[in-house]
Amino acid sequence: MHDRTNEHPDESGEFMPPLPPYSGELTVCVKCSHNEAFTYYRPACPRAMHDRNGRMQQRGPLPERLERACQRCDYSWDEALVPAEGIHPATVENVARALQECAPYPVNQPAATYTAERLLGVAHVLLRADHPMWATVFEHTGPLPAEQPTPPPTPAGLKQTVPATPEPTGPTVQQAGFVDQ
Hints:
This protein has helices at 92-102, 109-122, 173-176; strands at 37-42, 48-52, 55-59, 65-70, 76-79. The protein is α+β, with helices and mostly antiparallel strands. The radius of gyration is 23 Å and the shape is elongated.
């Protein structure tokens, strides 16, 4: 399974190819080899006719993106947004792993991957770099944050209760075929 972080669904719900990553301040134009380009933010837009490099093209729907334009020849192309420092968009693999590790029941890999793809198709998900689950994903410069303090012991004679969770309705996870049996 490949990373769909920068992919976006078209009108049919199918995923479009991802935008290329941001190429940096100094980038080389593929048409004239000039090494400077203007950068413009473009919001998401529906399918429409757009003037692109001197001709009308039907494009879209398009995600929010950076439009780059060569300073010399005015050729333009789209690139993915640049996440802010410390922001880590989740990949399908990241979300699938979180689903498997955080669910109160076993979730097999195909079900976790399917759910992760659907979730990333409708929501932006960011990873918490401070969470121990992602310690192997991020290179930390210091130690991971300390564990949360444990609650004080229950006074003698009192029972500690856990709120009851409502019983699920509908087919079980096993009946739906999402758990290895």
